[in-house]
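Posting for a labmate who doesn't have an account.
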Amino acid sequence: MPLLWLASFPKSGNTWMRALLANYLAGGSAGVPLARLSDFAVSDATLAPYERAAGRALANASVADIMPYKAKAHALLAPDPKALVFAKTHGALRRIGGVPTITPAVTAGAVYILRNPLDVTLSYADHYGITHAQAVDAMASGSLTIKGRADRAPEFLGDWSSHVRGWTTAEGLARLVLRYEDIAGDPAAALRRALEFLRQPVDAERLASAVAHSRFEALANQEALGGFRERSRNQAKFFRSGKAGQWRTDLAPDLVARVVAAHRDVMRDFGYLDDTGEPV
């Protein structure tokens, strides 16, 4: 079971966790260049494995088009059954047309990163070039999908709450759940938890070096100097602020209320609402 999924709803901290893990496992004194970070984990949205599995072109395919080839495509992502492969996904964990979106037979486990949906709203809007209100609507949509393109497979997301529930409650899945806010507050502790989950030896000096190379400011500086291929065409920059709680100043009160109303139960379960139901 060679695939270890690094999973999250878009704009929830997947890239930061990849940077931490990549820098630790590489163990280099200079750190992993941002230009190579996308190579650290294969992507469930890479179209080529689906086209190999289908034996035909699948440009601009729908979710329904690719689901029959999910299992074979995932097997192609990790051809060596003895080698653990990190795989990035924003997709929901569920069944579509009777087919699991994440293939159990080739899955070793998952690290799932979630983030306060109030802050996700801001980053999601920036990434996709839409208004905050449109982002609130999108994140509450049960049919939300990242569409396929000429070079990428589509990813079905669904609404934010269902996405979180799917990954954090799936039966039989070995998982570690990390909150973005906890990664930002103590990246060393978050990385240590991830390494322990992966049953990797933890070297204190190497861990400190990985954290230093993965500081938000360090990643932002790399992007400023050389760009980052995961930045969308709608964004001025991929690494915007890295801070938790920006919604307090940047998200209109009526939109805060709409997000809370749509995702109240999951927000409460993961500590994003206090005992009175107010966001924290």
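Reply:
Got it, the structure tokens are right above this. The chain has a mean pLDDT of 92.
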